[in-house]
Design goal:
419 residues; alpha+beta; three-stranded antiparallel β-sheet; 45% helix
């Protein structure tokens, strides 16, 4: 994201105009895959290839010899989150084909299971897709401060229409650059199996009454093994000010004495908590002392947040992620992230599992969240199995497109896109 003076006023009115002009428009008349009942435009496949490309790029970027200024990484072997090894360009094409075929499979299975697709959800996904297409984000409140890359600028010139983009969105979630906390490394979040059609089929399989419904016992066991209830208090070791000359905001690090005081007091709270043998009393100690600390240091009310999360998929900063996974019940720790004018000191406390269960389980929506975490991989394999046995026809047009069509050279020093 980069600063801009763009204003978000009249956004929805403009979006409606875009929708009117886009209706019925198709960038390319080519098709990609079809069955006797349905034919998908080439744009659907090219959208799938783009997201597969971004996933592969995120994996490759972690390799020691990765060069952002060259597309040579496309010819190198990568290892995906499932442990599969493949040359990046082939992995991208295979995944793009899989995703495209899964759309055909999903449409068929949703009908077979009699799953009801909520029209309100369909409309919401279409609207979000249009926002991402035209503005790069659904979080339109940020448009007055930042500019995002509209997917239209990337995909339309490759042969993708808005209709194809929206069809993809009805089956797989789209990347939203304006989502809080998102980074380009969070690729696993951008292409999951929980959008409209896929969510309805998932419910028919694994929710209560489904053909493969998860038992209460299995759900509880999974929660106990994977979920934690934690409090996190982030303390900035800097202040934000405005440069008088440029009128731009900037961060200025606190002096050493202030940093020592802020960090030292949190360390003392963590020690007091850890010296408390009973986890319930430890929670009481943590809550009281963090409240006192917040008041004493004039921190914003509610600065400390408490939530229940899957510790294996918490999407936290690396330092926090490691701390949360290692923290025992009724224990506290402190972690520093960043340096100088970007440094933040975190206090983390973990409640005992029983209190977490009392707080989180037995809520219909929370139970569904746990089941999604439990069965996402199984669902992925289920769709892949159906796809392998699926009868379809592939267009010759598919093989005209290669992943390097999405490569944009970047300066390896600044990661800026080269003009």
């Amino acid at each position: 994201m980069k600063p801009t003076v763009k204003i978000a006023s009249l956004l929805m009115a403009v979006l409606m105009l875009f929708s009117v002009f886009a209706a019925g428009c198709t960038t390319s008349q080519e098709w990609s895959y079809k069955t006797d009942d349905e034919k998908l435009a080439i744009g659907v496949y090219l959208t799938a290839m783009y997201y597969a490309y971004k996933d592969a790029e995120a994996i490759a970027s972690k390799m020691d010899d990765y060069d952002a200024s060259s597309d040579s990484w496309l010819d190198k072997e990568i290892t995906d989150k499932a442990g599969n090894k493949e040359v990046a360009s082939k992995w991208i094409k295979d995944r793009a084909q899989l995703r495209t075929l899964e759309i055909l499979v999903l449409n068929k299975e949703v009908k077979n299971y009699g799953a009801t697709v909520d029209s309100a959800v369909t409309e919401k996904i279409d609207t979000d897709a249009e926002l991402i297409w035209h503005y790069g984000t659904t979080n339109t409140q940020y448009l007055q401060y930042y500019s995002f890359t509209p997917m239209k600028e990337i995909l339309e010139k490759k042969g993708v229409s808005l209709e194809s983009f929206k069809l993809y969105a009805q089956n797989f979630k789209l990347r939203d650059e304006g989502a809080l906390g998102m980074t380009t490394e969070d690729s696993d979040l951008f292409d999951t199996n929980f959008s409209n059609n896929s969510a309805r089929l998932f419910e028919k399989l694994y929710f209560e009454g489904g053909s493969q419904a998860v038992s209460k016992e299995d759900l509880t066991k999974y929660f106990e093994d994977n979920y934690v209830r934690i409090t996190i208090l982030p303390v900035q070791l800097y202040e934000s000010t405005t440069d008088e000359a440029t009128q731009q905001s900037k961060n200025v690090a606190f002096d050493d004495a202030k940093v020592k005081q802020l960090c030292g007091d949190l360390d003392k709270i963590a020690k007091a908590v850890n010296d408390t043998k009973d986890s319930t009393k430890a929670a009481e100690t943590s809550e009281k002392q963090i409240k006192d600390y917040t008041t004493a240091n004039s921190l914003q009310e509610g600065a400390a947040s408490t939530s229940t999360m899957n510790k294996n998929n918490a999407n936290l900063k690396e330092e926090l992620d490691k701390a949360v996974k290692e923290l025992g019940e009724g224990k506290a720790t402190t972690v520093k992230s960043g340096e100088g004018e970007n440094a933040i000191y975190f206090y983390i406390f973990r409640y005992n599992t029983e209190s977490a269960k009392d707080d989180y389980l037995n809520s219909g929506e929370n139970d569904k969240t746990i089941i999604r975490a439990m069965k996402e991989t199984d669902f992925e394999k289920y769709l892949e199995t159906l796809t392998k046995d699926f009868k379809y026809e592939k267009s010759d047009s598919v093989d005209k497109y290669d992943p390097d069509m999405y490569f944009v050279a970047k300066d390896p020093e600044t990661t800026a896109v080269e003009e």
